[in-house]
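hey so i finally got around to running both of the ones u sent me last week. sorry it took forever, my laptop kept dying halfway thru and i had to restart like 3 times lol. anyway pasting them below in the order u listed, first the sequence line then the structure token line for each. didnt double check formatting much so if smth looks off just lmk and ill redo it

first one:
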Amino acid sequence: PDAGSWADCDPQTQYFVGGYGCEPLGGGCSGVTEAYLPQGSPLIGPRGGISPDDCRSLCSTANQGGSLIQCHVPLDASGSYATDGGADVVECYWQYGCTGRQPEGFAMPEAQPGLGGYLASMAALEAASVPAFRRLARELSALGAPEELCARARQAALEEIDHTRTMRALAEGRGGIVVAPELGPERLRSTRELAVENAVEGCVRETFGAALALWQSRAARDPELRQAFARIAEDEASHAELSWDVAAFLEERLTAEELEATQAARAAAIRELEGQLALGQPLAYDDAAGIPPPALARALFESVASEVWGGLAS
């Protein structure tokens, strides 16, 4: 397609990928936050469009750990801009990683189009999991966790290195460019903070990621991807099991208030994941990668919710 510019895309339904063209908003790992502008701001273009530079400035305070792909002022049923208390509402669209253990300070690289771009994002997520598991192993050891638990975290880091190499090769073979993810500096964390991170990144995202990889190992039309996902699914299932064992170890060391906060964070992460999946829409490479369409993604989510998360998903 014609490379064009962001102004060539319909801001209500599309975003611009440099050097490629317009791609549909949505995708299974996208989310929306809100910012505000004075009504009638000169930054707002036709159909509520806003330039990428202005979006980065406007949406910077609304980032929730994703990669910004577009922002615009939505139109209401009459075709007028949506407003709130005298201000125009700006919707900021982010690409998130729906699965995998993401370390504190992680930021997704810039979105890329097509199957190669999708696999490049997966490679970035796998790469980010390596330091996450290494840090988990160190922190568990400092808390006096059984060596078996610490060793499993170290083994998970080694497996994530293998996953990164696999996804990098698959992405580059399909036109993707793998960019190392941005990671924040490490800091000393409390047991409560570690428990909350494990609840969100391990018990929710890693757990759903294992189920998703298993699905893709059976549904992907690309035989190389089926083979890769089969191996990754087995490892991710063991990582998910590790997360729940880590949760059991940590929660014994929490106060009643800290335990309640950890459980609330896990429930909130389940609801957030559900919301991200609801934004999904079919993309051209879904069949090749075995990405379930929205209805099946919902069914997969409900299966995990019923069998693993229980009443937390309600």
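and the second one:
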Amino acid sequence: MRIKHHIGGNEKTDKIKKQFDKLNIKYKETMNIITADIYEDDKNWSEIQQLIIQKKLTDMIEKVFSKKELKESKWLKLRSGWYWDYPKPDYDMEYRKITYKDSNYCIECGSGLIQTAPFRLKSEPKWGNKAILQLNWVYDELFIKSELYNQLIALGFSGISSQKVINNQNDDVLKSVFQLNIEKKLLPGLIKDKNNIEPYICNSCGITKYQYNPKQIISYKSEAFSDASDFNKTSELFGAKDNKISIPFIIVSNKVYNFFEENKWKQPIFEPLSLVE
């Protein structure tokens, strides 16, 4: 496993470029925004780390795994890596009233929404060679190209069903996309001490969520997977203490990883779990 930092900045661009050049950092420049990908095993990492702090650069952290690490993992966290547009209607978060029952929605931690209607999108997604997307603001649901969904069902992958998605402009059912309903919930099994995770109990609604450390591999008790499907959601909710996100993670079997590895579909992002007997 390697730790990658996607860093960027737009203030005093020329000075940042000079410092990047000095540290042999390859960067991209778009509309006066400088971005670069840096690994913590870079020989100049300590200086780069100071630069991030001094220049207040944005810093998105990601774990990067080898194919061997992924292939040997029995269970993996999955996310799309492609966030496409927003749920509609997006003005003043109106989609919440239309898509969810929100009577128990907590404005402090973001928990309590119960989906009662199909999601609505502006149009058919521009798929290209992608086949799984997520929506901004909706971090616990996957939307899947209909062709891929039909293939997963034909091959017997468990724990999923489909939900139609509506065109917000004319109320037609979109043809190329389904919401991927993940029906199975894992047994509780997060190992908090091993992950150095402190639970946060919401002062408003009382739910417990856990802040996810992007540099650590998540550890679970093996018994949590005793009745698991190929696609699952965690019983535990995750999200930072100071944001309005309280979501389960999506966990899939090694069979799902191998399917994407062996087929034409562009891979989503997989992250191995550590299992403890």
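quick thing i noticed on the 2nd:
The first strand starts at residue 2 and ends at 9.
anyway thats it, ttyl
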